[in-house]
Amino acid sequence: MSTTMPKGRRADDRVLRRAGDRAAVRHTVSLVVPARDEARNIPWVFEQIPRCVDEVLLVDGDSTDATLRMATSCLPSVRTVRQSGPGKGNALRTGFAAATGEYVVMIDADGSMSPGEIPHYIHFLDHGYDFVKGSRYLSGGGSSDLTTVRSLGNRALLAVVNRLYGARLTDLCYGFCAFRRGFLDTLELRATGFEIEAEMVAHALRKGLRIAEVPSFELPRRGGRSHLHAVSDGRRVLRTLIAERPGARPARTKAVGER
């Protein structure tokens, strides 16, 4: 799948470093960054944000370090939002509700995902796709952080989603995604934890959204400790996939197209 980089604009030029994003973007873009105690990683993440991003929302999960001060220091235009409850799913839903852009991109604050890849996602939204997700298994993608346990778990869960939903995805448990904000209600997100990433994919498949995967390279966390618990979070993802499978409960929204 092509990953031609579109070109963009942004008001805060001092954080825009990418050479490939100079021309106008057709739609406004909000970047949602959930964070809890990520003060050491925020500077690297924020300085990589490309020009096509118009709004950055940092959703704080009761950080006890200098995450909020670091965020506003690195990017004075950042919007900081406190999540309304515990868990990554709650943080993302809080950020999505506060976003104003026509496109919404989600990325982790630990430095494991490169914001410089965002124009690839925007390219596919600009060309008719509704939901775009990163894949570490497509040509051009990869990971320098996947453990054997995480890799095996991801492949097993991927087999489940492809079987239950009749899909041909190449990656599942990777939270670098973008979607049209107009489909936020269609996605009907309820998850509170890490399983929200699988819930988003499952609901996008159920509702017939046009889905694209783009190559993405996962980097090691730059600093601090991960909040992911591979086994327990994997179980929650599996329960989500089974509970949300087609036919498990009536969908409230019509399908809007075929993948």
Question: Structural class, judged by helices and strands?
Answer: alpha/beta
Shape: globular
**What is the mean pLDDT?**
84
What's the number of extended β-strand segments? Answer: 9
- Low-confidence blocks of residues: 2-20, 250-259
Order of helices and strands: EHEHEHEHEEHEHHEEH
**Contiguous helical run count:** 8
Largest sheet: 7 strands, mixed
Task: Please characterize this protein's 3D structure.
- With 259 residues, the protein is α/β, with parallel strands linked by helices.
- It is built from eight helices and nine strands.
- The protein has helices at 42-47, 67-74, 88-98, 118-126, 148-165, 184-187, 196-206, 230-243, and strands at 29-35, 55-60, 79-82, 103-106, 131-135, 142-143, 177-180, 211-215, 217-218.
- A seven-stranded mixed beta sheet has the order 3-2-1-4-7-5-8, sandwiched between helices. The protein has a two-stranded parallel ribbon with strand order 6-9.
- Helix 5 packs parallel to helix 8.
- Mean pLDDT is 84; it is low at 2-20 and 250-259.
Which tags fit this structure?
single chain, 259 residues, alpha/beta, seven-stranded mixed β-sheet, 9 strands, disordered C terminus
